[in-house]
Input
Amino acid sequence: MGRYIGGRVVSMIITFLIIASLTFFLMKLLPGTPFNNQEKLTDTQIVQLNEKYGLNDPVAVQYFNYMKNLFVGDLGVSFQQDGREVSTIIGERIGASAYLGFQSIVLGTIIGLFLGIIAALRHNSFLDYGTMVIAVLGISIPNFVIAGLMQYWLGVKWGLLPVAYWDGFAYTIMPTIAIASIVVATIARFMRTEMLEVLGQDYITTAKAKGLSSTAVVIRHTIRNASIPIITIMGPLVVALMTGTLVIEQIFVIPGLGEKFVNSIMTNDFPIIMGTTLFYSLLFIVVILLVDVMYGIIDPRIRLAGGKD
Amino acid sequence: MKKSRWTLVLSLVLVLSVFLSACGGGSNNGGNNGGGEGDGDSASEQVMNLYATAEIPSMDTTQATDATSFNAMNQVFEGLYRLDENNEPTLGVAAEEPKEEEKDGETVYTFTIRDDAKWSDGSAVTAEDFIYAWHKALNPETISPYASMFGTAGIKNGNAIITEGDPLYGKVEELGAKAVDEKTLEVTVDTKVPYFKSLLTFATFYPQPKAFAEEKGKDFALEADTMLYNGPFVFSEWNHGEGWNYKKNPEYWDAEVVNLEEITVKIVKDTATSVNLYDTGKVDRATLDADFVDQFKGGEDFSTILEPTMFFLRLNQGKNEALANKDIRKALYLAYDREGLVNVLLNNGSVAAKYFVPKDFVKGPNGDDFREFAKDGFFADQGEAEAKEAWEAGLKALGTDSVEFEFLTTDTELSSTIAEYAKEQFESKLDGLKITINKQPWKQFLDLEDSGDFDISTGGWGPDYPDPMTFLYMFETDGAYNRMGYSSEKYDQLVSDAKKETDLEKRWDMMQQAEKVLMEEDIAIVPTYQRGLAIIQKPYIKNYYVHTFGADASYKWVKIEGK
Output
């Protein structure tokens, strides 16, 4: 196990460096300058400003400078927010995103698993159809529509919840429901399919035949085996949701990271583009490793290299 | 069959009940929390709640370039002058109007700084603080994107210091500004411009607390507590991704006229959200887009503001030979129905424009608005019939019966709609014309426009200083913003003469003639509209003054009355 993880860490570092390099060069292909009032700058002014930010150096030089700084953990300063550290900016925004993402995932996963399991156990019943209708709605209605409707009815018309802002638990309810709707739909559909497949396996028949109670069959054999694919999709889902969702953040005025991701590209804020991308990749790489390790724990059929059996 | 229909009905009921119970469960908590907050709002509190559509990129007066920063700076800092209710410069840090002295064709203004002008830590605002900030803006190491403002103001050597290759390049101490003593600032001007005092209200000309800024170094002005304030308000909080709050500045020299105790600002980018926040009383003022105007129009909350921002089409005569033909340009100019654009698509108080220098922007030496000249615009009484006539003549001269133009625009929803509208206008009225729309992200758009890679492009321009020249200098032959190969000796002459002319009446006349050459003789561009802003504002907000250049508004005089 130790050797396996060691090997994986080496390949993770290589992956990370490749992502960093690719992002850097792709980013340099973006048109335009990182300056806000570019439409009012003359060519001479642009040259002067580029000089000030070290953007007149050859791309190779800029690349080596960047990588050198990256090794000592320096992500540089934002061009748009003049002079502020990229790490500070990510730091002050990740909190809200992570909180909201985590809450949505927990809520969404619990409801999703529950619906999926019920649907599979009551296959072809009202419950099954009802669950699948929810799942299809959750997938097909964009969450900004759900968000907009909730904001108008629950926030403005009925005055039950605060319309927007980020100021305590009440403010997290609507955005959580909006984000969780996707999670519920995804997980419920997956879980139902996997459960149905597992329920048809020979070992389930065997378990039943040897006289295990149906509760034991469901809990110990069915759900455990059916959740392996769920873990696969959970990894990327967790990373995606905990690093923020642009639309929901904008509608509910949440100071999250999702907006920075998108906006930095629109405004050519190079250090922020690099910082957010690398941050995202790092989380992703680590989560994928965790998922692989968890496979081994959940599924006895999968044993990683170096395992005892 | 019957069974499956029941199944469907039951499923729907189930779906609904799940949704409702989920919402209902959460709402109890929310309701209580919301109610608890509401209790704090007492009737007479001098608190204004606003939102901004973007973060503040910089609070360093020499580095900012955007509307959000300039607006915030106008509330917390102050230059020698500040803009008043009528957009006229009124005394700020300056104690009195400066002494003026003419010598060797130069004018020396001697400003005295108020004794009670203080930074928020109680230290005095000095002449040296101005010099420090101004030198920083011009120094190549720390150059300001608005460094050219010193030249625009006519301050001696302002241009030379930022021109590479000039013997004075980078020599900031050669700037025509010096601190005579702690409270006396001497500014030497080699070109006297009528808008000099107005320009001094602009952030680039603000002072910076020298000792404090040097002590903070790189951290200066990055956070609420790493800067000092000398304006009506201070930042009490600045949470970068979320918003910022202002608090009245007790050290401000004119603090007794400041009514507001607190102003809260959140960053809200979604228009529907801002309207919802307005409806629930969480913000006191909101800007509407066309979708929301009809909902509020006619109410006492609703009003429109005409901004001095112009939109127009650049016709690239440098690249496209059809556009080099004046009749073709005239046809495009006349075929465009501006009324449909402003009344239906924009619906926000924007007005149709057949002119280039906006109305309600600047007044001439005789006190009349610039737009009293050619009041209804150029070719005001001509329309579709004349457009078709000009089009025929143009095609004939070109010896063709069909022309294609590439229409370059940006990829926002509004610009896409406007581009589609223009295409429809032109193609339906001008036979043989085919328009291809090229939508690009903003930065790519600027690159393409700058390199002249388009036939027609959508342009917009807001003023940098309160004078028609901020518009007219764009289209000089070598102008950095010309971008369409337009060149007219007559126009260049008029513009450069007007820049030098000291007789204000003559200067005004030259600028009007220049506009006439651009619009009527050469038909170089197709102006489309002057932008309006539809806003809703709670009736208890009084004295919220909106500006036509620099900062969007002043909160100094705002008060809450009858809430």
The radius of gyration of chain A is 24 Å. Chain A touches chain B through 68 residues (CB under 8 Å). The longest helix of chain A spans residues 86-121. Residues 113 and 299 of chain A are 18 Å apart (CA to CA).
